[in-house]
Design brief:
Two copies of one chain form a homodimer. Chain A is mainly alpha-helical. In chain A, 54% of the residues lie in helices and 9% in strands.
DNA sequence: CATTACATGTAAAAGGTTACATGATTCG
DNA sequence: CGAATCATGTAACCTTTTACATGTAATG
């Protein structure tokens, strides 16, 4: 599901202009999807060209003029069909975890800064989604509640794991320690085979 | 951290050819990073051009000839520096969660299939990383153990949450139920404002 | 008066995925 | 003997990110 499809989905719930769409993405999907103006505006233009949405100019009383998009019957049908057709991916790319994998190469201060920042972000996310969750009444769509609950649960566990295990990252492995002691730096390298179970 | 930097990192642990690098990514980083040949081979070429790695041809006894890459002193320094310079991102893009947000629009069968498949994937991932973790001895780098433990913990919680809460997705919200009863389909739409707390 | 929020776009660049092209060897 | 594994690469394509360009209005 690309930004285009997600916009269509959001428009299936409520009319909006591009700017609002971005705000809604941030509010609801913060923890698992992001979209910038650079992808939203072109996406809306393509949707309109395909007849899946229509736009009407709305004079912003006070604010700037807006272009409000409304989904068409064809758009609704298209979205529903794409939900049934696509194979939903779930992709994580974490430079944070990649970095920690090489924790041996980081000095203590840097390591602590990075971990602290990630922790803050996770706690912020956790409380933000918890807030969203609270505002959803019993009559809110099941999906919205499920997704919010999922986000809270995951953020909490991630933060807890990091807090409970971060101390392990400071126990430098004996194999690399010698470098500090002016050793020739290459002689001590013992290539561990971590290839793992599968291939 | 792009594929280029990650390759450099892997080469800081052990010499390898492009093919091996991909296998190692899959084995160790499966749950938070992916890289195809289409990004690894060009990355290695660029690293070599920049003098951060060197390659020597290795006659594959039996197998095809390989190009084995070894990190240079400059490469080691570059990698260490980039670990200290970069701002580590953590990006999740989940079409799965996006889809569940719109669970109202899915028929029961489709919903169950999608959820079951995600669950299987999570359980596979969980046991795979747990396997990797078991093979890491006490002398393995702290980062490798931390990252594996993190992966197991998260995969477990994600799967558990889904199993415990999936039933909620089948309770269709009353606001959308009328569609089944041949209602005009648009009249009943009550646009809930889910904009959320922040902006 | 300055900054933030509202509002819409474009263009270039970066990056990754997919498909293609090729070939040896091993395993069942 | 056919399939899977090992092995290297290229090129087109798709998407997203970033930077740019512009302007109003509310807020502090």
């Amino acid at each position: 599901m690309d930004v285009k499809t997600l916009c269509l989905g959001l428009l299936s719930l409520e009319d909006a202009c591009g700017y609002e769409l971005k705000k809604r993405c941030e509010a609801r999907f913060q923890h698992f999807f992001s979209a910038g103006y650079g992808s939203i505006y072109p996406a809306l233009a393509e949707l309109a060209e395909a007849g899946l949405v229509e736009d009407r100019a709305a004079a912003g009383d006070g604010r700037a003029d807006r272009k409000v998009y409304r989904i068409t019957a064809a758009g609704r049908e298209h979205f529903r069909r794409s939900l049934h057709t696509m194979t939903p991916q779930h992709k994580l790319r974490s430079e944070f975890l990649a970095m920690l994998y090489f924790a041996d190469l980081l000095d203590t201060e840097r390591l602590n800064t990075v971990v602290d920042e990630r922790l803050q972000e996770l706690r912020r996310t956790e409380s933000h989604i918890a807030g969203v969750e609270r505002e959803l009444g019993r009559d809110a769509p099941a999906g919205a509640r499920f997704v919010a609950g999922f986000g809270v649960a995951l953020a909490r566990v991630a933060a807890d794991y990091i807090e409970e295990h971060r101390h392990l990252l400071l126990e430098r492995s004996p194999a690399r320690q010698p470098e500090k002691a002016a050793a020739p730096a290459r002689a001590a390298r013992r290539p561990l085979d971590l290839t793992g179970s599968l291939p």
